[in-house]
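HUMAN: Please help interpret these tokens:
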Amino acid sequence: MPRNAEVIRQWSILRQLEASRRAHIDDLAEQTGVTTRTIRRDLEALQTAGFPLYDEVIDGKRYWMLEQRAFKRLDDTGFTLAELSALYFSRTLVECLASTPFQQDVASAFDKLAAALTPGMRQFLDRLPLVIQAKGAQASPADERAGREHVARVLDATLHSRRARVTYFSLSSAREKAYLIEPHRLVYSQGGLYLIAFVPEYGELRTFSVDRMRAVSLLEERFTPSEMPDEAFAHSLGVNDGPPETIEIAFEPRIAPYVRERRWHASQRHVDQPDGGIVVTLDVCNDWALRSWILGFGPLARVLSPASLAHQIRDEVEQTRSRYAALE
């Protein structure tokens, strides 16, 4: 069984125990679509990991429960000022989750943390955003209207391996289409949420933007998740699952220091040039994200290989130039 399916199932068990206060193994097995033997192994694994689970016999039946004050010992441990500062700073980093069902949980957790501080500490820590900030993408109008409800449903489908029907607006075809999907993973990338799902009609995994979902309905049908790579979109600078190619780009001396100091992709290598320039090699897929990244450097970047990509960039530049021809 894929590792991600096991983790998702065990997380689902924890959430179910937290929500219902107690649950019988038979109920957990039915809700997750596995055997009671598998549930027992999951419960043992969670206990071994340190989660405060315990069982109790009530009216002749054995129920499992989760200690509601799981981290009450934290009061005795205490935070250092540096740790509290780091946590408060992280609040700005997790604001990107504002369009997901985690928003209330995150806000509640930080509010409880703030309540444990003295007024003087809160006053000090509330000043941190003035000197340390994290800038994230803003939520889109779709997020504000119906996005949260759609995210909640596809997340539910993903956690419980349930099939779903989605009405989706495709930008490429400029029309809506209905899909039967098997949701595998939600990914937050470049200011948006994306769902990686298997589409039985096409026999392959596809990526859907949650912003472009017009309707989501869950089915009672279950599916067995496929093995997924540890990292989503690993070969793309953006949101794409295409095959990687070896890309070589030469950067002019005046932009080379900026390019050199950033980690644009895990496959990145560079070779310094005698004139102060730099040649960067990436093993990524040739997609819109790569081309827009290159074009963003304007005349300071030049594709060396492959030739097909160099021609694409040249054509993009020519088309852009023609749009400004009237100014000449």
